[in-house]
From TrEMBL:
It comes from Streptomyces tendae. This is DUF4040 domain-containing protein. The keyword Transmembrane helix applies. Residues 11-77 form the MrpA C-terminal/MbhD domain. It is a multi-pass membrane protein. GO terms for cellular component: plasma membrane. Its main location: membrane. The chain crosses the membrane at residues 6-23, 30-47, 53-72.
Amino acid sequence: MTEAVIVVALLLVAASATAAVAVRDPVRQSLVLAVLGVVLAVLFTVLQAPDVGLSQLAVGSALTPLLLLLTVRKVRRRGQRAPDGPAGRPGREGGP
């Protein structure tokens, strides 16, 4: 019975990791990464490592995707502002 649960958890990890690599949109990719973190936490719990599972749940499925989402949001917001000069500074024509 436990071997079947381990095999199912490993297949879920493989499927979610493949999905995280295959998704092209950074926002969706971070959400799939959060799902991967939850599935890894379940795998660690099944493998009788609940302390590692709790750490994975906190870091892998909550903190890392949150930081990625915030980074994507900041980069997109910065990209929406059209730079006036080549260095992104208004009124400068690229010389020192």
